[in-house]
Amino acid sequence: MNGPEFDNTFAKLPRILYEEVKPTPIKNARLVHVTKLRETLGLGSLSDDELTGWLNGEIQLSGEQRIATRYAGHQFGVWAGQLGDGRAISLGEIVTNAGRLEIQTKGSGLTPFSRMGDGKAVIRSSVREYLCSEAMEGLKIPTTRVLALLIGEDKVQREEIERSAVVARVMPSNIRFGHFEMCFHFEKQEALDALIDYTRKTFFNDVSVEEMLTEVVTRTAKLMAMWMGVGFNHGVMNSDNMSIMGLTIDYGPFGFLEDTDLNYICNHSDQQGRYAYSQQPSIGMWNLERLLICFMNRVPKEKLESILGIYPEIFEKEFTRIGREKLGLKLEQEGDNLLFTRLLQVMDKLSLDFTFTFRQLSNENMKPFWDYYGNREEMKEWITQYEARLALESGSTQERYTRMKQVNPKYILKNYIAQEVIVDVEQGNSGRLNDWLKVFYSPFEEHTEFEKYAMPTPSEHKHYEVSCSS
Ligand code: AMP
Ligand code: MG
Fold first, then answer.
1. From ligand 2's centre to the CA of 25, what distance in Å?
2. Measured between alpha carbons, how far is 398 from 402 in angstroms, rounded to an integer?
């Protein structure tokens, strides 16, 4: 069958980097949702049934591919050896108006890299990935995107028996730090060189290796600052879950801060808190070091060290910039970073809802905040410092509130919201998913019918636990 025109470039790399695979269709696949990427990708001419059949591996399009890629990585700080796409299959690359985009289906069955896994994905984790990818897009944070969600009727064993699903993901490239680590640690220098030059030419404008690495370090540092700025905790920052493009990738047990706890660990399986919210900036750098080591045959050691060395400064600068924006500050003053981090500490101490607090600071009237939290001494003290700082600013307060509302979202993907959508999708409905996607594509706007979800999480919906199992 004819569809879009594919231009599959990754599969021209040395064979060590991928295997051809056969997808395992999920049973009685039903298309629950498709995003606008369908048009971007030139898939508009396929009917819903054709698209479903293709994504589920039942129909082939001319020019497509079915490959799973081989990577390796460090998991929880330890070398984990070979990994790879254990349940994701790449269907091909398409050059679009938005650049080169690869379509990958997650939950498409066993691959040579499935290890102990079953190659499947369940509705729960697929809906979470679906919502969060698009929510990140709405928050203007670099991320893999989604094209479609299919649900099936296979029984899949997790902590409980759940039903199967497939998420079709879209991204410029699936290349992870782990692809470089695989070539390097298994001493496949030729493949490594080919991968480096392919990545450089295809995705980094043909710049030098050093410039590319500088760009990867910069993007990663900025990504970490952006995560911190919205209270996002990824949860499984293994080096195989780090995108060379600087995208947020592999949504698993992620969580956004609700009651602020700077040591929040969204991943129930992470007992040591290696990937806690507050650890992310330093883990980002640790992972970059794992990546840069793989370039030691291409770039002098001192150069690699100096490239890695720019990370803390870039992170700090971006984090301070985001902090200033969130507080509505236009002037750059020495103590701004301190003012911002002091607020985070107060929010932590008083367990204030992260998103609600920043949004309230963006309002002419903080009454709802004081009504909700009552008289909190530490917060009042901080407000006094903040007001002193604001006195240095020019411009109207109204203008400041408008600016602040463009960077402090009103709506964030809370676990209980995801849970409500999951229940709905499991019953075969797409209403809530549709509604919430609309909200998350514009989280800075008012959506009055969802007002109550912008309030701090009701106590019966707190402390939702998410494990690695997906
Ligand atoms: P993650 O930490 O979820 O990104 O996954 C780590 C590794 O395990 C990757 O190689 C995944 O492809 C693989 N994996 C995760 N879940 C499954 C599964 N259910 N079946 C096969 N492979 C899986
Ligand atoms: Mg992964």
1. 21
2. 6
